Amino acid sequence: MSTDQDLLADGRLTDGLLAHPYAVYDRLRDTAPVHCVTGPDGSPAWLVTRYDDVREALANPLLSLDKRHALPGGYKGFALPPALDANLLNMDPPDHTRIRRLVGRAFTTRRVEQLRAPIRRTADHLLDVLGTSGGPHGSTDLIAAYAAPLPITVICDLLGVPHEHRRDFRAWTDVLVAPDPARPQAAKEAVVAMLGFFTQLLADKRKEPADDLLSDLIAVRDEGGREGSDRLSEDELMSLAFLILFAGYENTVQLIGTAVLALLQHPDQLAALRADPSRLPAAVEEFVRYDGPALLAIRRFPLEDVTIGDVTVPAGETVLLSLAAANRDPRRFPDADRFDLGRDATGHLALGHGIHYCLGAPLARLETEIALAALLERLPDLKLDGDPGDLRWRPSLRARGLLALPVTY
To answer: In 3-state terms, what secondary structure has residue 312?
Structure first.
């Protein structure tokens, strides 16, 4: 197994970073803040770890998300078919601007706030099930029983995905985020299954439109806008549905899980939050800064030679911006490795920065706030079940999250 020292010695983004990400990042920020590494698929990339460098790079128009600007042999991320790949994570302006404008209205803070009551009903229902199965006292895996089904229910309701397909989508997502080396074909099989799922879903929605976001997007594709300006191609439509469903589930389940873990490991902070739940919205910013769901931003490719820190990265090479490292940079957040709900965590980069700032950020914040509020009210004796050192983390550089969170209540 690689250690953080191994990472500095040979540049491998493998076990050391997965097992001890913040220890590795601490050392890299001090010794090699722009560091040449080997990416998850074995190809070369540049890893950026200091807050100022990451923030500036996130907003730099010379760093493209479009894989057409990548040199052959560099790390490019997911390998998806065109019908799923024409999404915002692979686009620059003007296409990025056009598509984000079309879907952005559904994710404004005002529109998302209208989901508060439905989200709380879902949270209460999941906790009711826990009470029914465990009686006044019980134990459970909080990821499987609560943190995962809450966001998948919310985003599927928003898009209009039928209930019978939600379990399948969770399984496909898990395979893509953390591929199993023992099952090399599993990711390809998941992609094929998802492509078939979305093809059928779009066909069904065209036959029977409903009051949901996907039906609205289909109307934009089929009826609205002028060709080349405010209209979606068929691949863009399917890719957008995929991205909203994928990211809307994946990021939030990880955030809820790590937030609950942070509270259970810091009982003084948990007690303070129980005493004053009005602090929850601000607390979410510290949760996402301290241990957010994404270690890295989506990869980028310089359109020309670009200087980051004191390193010049050649055009077309892959740049990986570490959101997690930036958020633990003591130059920006004093005593950054300390979890502190009294901290002013504004300015964190967990949800991005610039034109690619997370479209679903208002929804992720609201879901996390409501999920924690319901837990604080309904499960006053919530405790970690077992040794924190035995917790297993998802073996993925794409998404940081717990495989399970055993608790008693």
So the answer is: strand
List, in sequence order, every residue forming a beta bridge with 307; answer none if it has no partner: 312
Kindly report whether the peptide bond that precedes residue 94 is cis, defined as omega within 30 degrees of 0.
yes
**pTM of the complete model beyond 0.85:** yes
Give the pLDDT confidence score for residue 9 in this predicted structure: 39
**Cα distance between residue 54 and residue 353, in whole Å:** 9
Instruction: State the pLDDT confidence band at 134, using cuts at 50, 70 and 90.
Output: low
Q: Give the pair of three-digit tokens for residue 324.
A: 């997690």
Q: Return the structure tokens found at 123.
A: 């949270």
Q: Centre a 10 Å sphere on the Cβ of residue 376 and count the other Cβ atoms it contains.
A: 17
- Using alpha carbons, list the distances in angstroms from residue 398 to 137, 179, 265, 362, 394: 36, 11, 24, 21, 10
Helix (H, G, I), strand (E, B) or coil at 141: strand
Which two structure tokens, joined as six digits, stand for 10?
């040979």
- Burial class of 55 by CB neighbour count within 10 A (0 to 12, 13 to 18, 19+): buried
- Report, in angstroms and rounded to the nearest whole number, the Rg of the chain calculated over CA atoms: 21
CA distance 406 to 147: 12
pLDDT band (50, 70, 90) for residue 108: confident
Q: How many helices (H) and strands (E) does the chain have?
A: 18, 10
Query: How do residues 258-317 score in pLDDT, each as one tens digit?
Result: 999 999 999 999 999 999 999 999 999 999 999 999 999 999 999 999 999 999 999 999
Q: Is the dihedral of CA 55, 286, 16, 352 positive or negative?
A: negative
Q: How far apart are CA 237 and CA 300, in angstroms?
A: 23
With H, G, I as helix, E, B as strand and everything else as coil, classify residue 178: coil
Taking the C-alpha atoms of residue 409 and residue 407, their distance in angstroms, rounded to an integer, is 7
Alpha helices in 228-360 (DSSP H): 234-265, 267-275, 280-291, 323-327
| 78 phi and psi angles, rounded to 5 deg | -55, 140
- Residue position matching structure tokens 């009982």: 267
DSSP letters for 23-56: HHHHHHHHH-SEEEEE-TTS-EEEEE--HHHHHH
**Pairing assessment for the beta strands 383-384 and 63-64 based on DSSP bridges:** unpaired
The one-character DSSP state at 179 is -
Q: Which tokens is 101 given?
A: 């404008």
CA distance 180 to 396: 10
